[in-house]
Design a protein that fits this description.
Blueprint lengths: L1 H24 L5 H20 L6 H25 L3 H9 L14 H8 L2 H9 L15 H7 L3 H8 L2 H5 L4 H12 L3 H8 L14 H8 L2 H9 L14 H7 L3 H9 L14 H7 L3 H8 L2
Helix pairs in contact: 3-4, 3-5, 5-6, 7-8, 10-12, 12-13, 12-14, 14-15, 14-16, 16-17
Length: 293
């Protein structure tokens, strides 16, 4: 820097002498004008070199580390795309951020779910990969990705985590539960629902309790209530499990639901209570029972 400063000083001095003679030769003899001209030139040069400071070694080291981590993270997504488990493991152990996103907004875990690579999915989750649940953007929701591509083993694995029990869960698992109930495969139903939120809804707002309340049997309704199914949840048209039991004429299930806190005064979107639903479907024994409460 000292050499550069000395060079600039000599250059400005010689330039001043040369330009001073040249300007006077062409008729610019006012020393004030000449001085103003050179002040402007010097100011511009100083401004050009003002930013040329000694480099901050700590900042450069930090930038190097960040660039290396970003490079490793980008390489991680690529390795996941290629299904190369050894490379994925190496990059994670080298400090790659497992939750960084590529230019399209996808993390390594999302990419692994897309590819249906269970081994890599499991490894990423075990090493800090965030299970992304995003109901506002199903494109980046790992459950939606697994569902849309029929990666059922991955869907089942991810559904076992606590986050899946308390946050948004897509309608795939809900519909799966409902269809299991309709097929009366109650052993499978119990095994599946034990790992997820029992009150999950499908796109129509239906829960498995509503389905079983329609068709029975009573002991499965009782089981669902005991594991935490909410008897007063409504679907998109305002129906509760009690309204469905009343509509389908199962008085034993109606009594069971009422004894477990079902609201007999709840109304659907048409303003009908369970008693009114029973009347409209000519289940008069249920109507009479509900009106007696």
């Amino acid at each position: 820097m000292k050499f550069i400063s000395t060079f600039i000083g000599v250059f400005l001095f010689t330039s001043f002498c040369s330009m001073n003679g040249a300007l006077q030769a062409v008729g610019v003899r006012n020393s004030g004008d000449i001085h103003i001209f050179f002040v402007l030139i010097i100011t511009i040069i100083i401004m050009m070199f003002r930013g040329n400071k000694e480099p901050n070694k700590e900042s450069n080291q930090e930038d190097t580390v960040n660039n290396k981590q970003k490079y490793n993270s980008d390489m991680l997504v690529t390795a996941v795309m290629n299904g190369n488990f050894d490379s994925v493991k190496y990059l994670v152990e080298s400090g790659a951020n497992v939750n960084s996103k590529n230019s399209e907004g996808f993390t390594a875990l999302m990419t692994a779910v897309m590819n249906g690579n269970f081994e890599i999915v499991q490894y990423l989750v075990e090493n800090g990969g965030t299970i992304q649940i995003n109901p506002n953007d199903k494109r980046t929701d790992v459950f939606e990705i697994a569902k849309s591509l029929n990666h059922n083993d991955i869907l089942e694995y991810l559904s076992g985590f606590e986050i899946a029990k308390h946050a948004y869960v897509d309608d795939y698992t809900a519909n799966q539960l409902i269809q299991t109930a309709v097929r009366r495969e109650f052993k499978t139903l119990k095994e599946t629902i034990s790992n997820i939120n029992p009150n999950i809804k499908n796109d129509e707002g239906e829960t498995v309790l509503m389905t079983v309340a329609k068709y029975g049997p009573e002991d499965i309704v009782d089981y669902l209530i005991n594991i935490g199914c909410d008897v007063n949840i409504k679907n998109n048209v305002g129906y509760t499990a009690l309204m469905y039991a009343s509509k389908y004429g199962n008085i034993d299930i109606v009594r069971l639901l009422v004894n477990n806190g079902a609201d007999v005064n709840a109304e659907n979107n048409s303003g009908f209570t369970a008693s009114k639903v029973a009347e409209l479907t000519r289940n008069f024994d249920i109507q009479q029972y509900l009106q007696s409460l």
